[in-house]
């Protein structure tokens, strides 16, 4: 599996290109999703991921794409797994 720091630039560049080509004006970057990791991240792992998110956001903003950040696991109303 690739480390986030070795692929972040390429992924951000591809995402920016897609957004420009298709007229996408804003993206939401989700981070720290537990299901994407083996649980909660330690400080060192978190630093790597947050640096990747920061760099990706800067790259996208450099292409005039608005960026929102979310630590949530879903894009709809957040229930935290609770059933109502």
How does this model look, in words?
The chain is of the alpha+beta class and 84 residues long. The chain has one domain. Helix content is 46%, strand content 12%. It contains 2 helices and 2 strands; from the N terminus they run H-E-H-E. The protein has helices spanning 4-22, 43-62, and strands at 26-30, 66-70. Strands 1-2 form a two-stranded parallel ribbon. Helix 2 (43-62) links the parallel strand 1 and strand 2 (66-70). Helix 1 runs parallel beside helix 2 (43-62). The relative contact order is 0.22. The model has no long low-confidence stretch (mean pLDDT 77).
Q: What are the SSEs and their pairings?
A:
Blueprint (H helix, E strand, L loop, with lengths): L3 H19 L3 E5 L12 H20 L3 E5 L14
Parallel strand pairs: 1-2
Helix pairs in contact: 1-2
Biggest beta-sheet profile: 2 strands, parallel
Number of strands: 2
The residue-averaged pLDDT reads 77
Low-confidence stretches are: none
Instruction: Tell me the helix content.
Output: 40-55%
Structural class of the helix and strand makeup? Answer: alpha+beta
Number of domain modules: 1
Radius of gyration: 14 Å
Features:
single chain; 2 helices; alpha+beta; 84 residues
Question: TL;DR?
Answer:
The protein is an alpha+beta fold. 46% of the residues lie in helices and 12% in strands.
């Amino acid at each position: 599996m690739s480390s986030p720091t070795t692929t972040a630039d390429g992924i951000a560049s591809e995402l920016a290109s897609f957004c420009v080509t298709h007229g996408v004006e804003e993206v939401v970057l989700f981070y720290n999703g537990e299901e994407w990791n083996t649980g909660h991240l330690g400080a060192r792992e978190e630093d790597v991921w947050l640096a990747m998110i920061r760099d990706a956001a800067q790259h996208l903003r450099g292409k005039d794409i608005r960026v929102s950040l979310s630590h949530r696991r879903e894009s709809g109303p957040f229930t935290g797994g609770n059933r109502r």
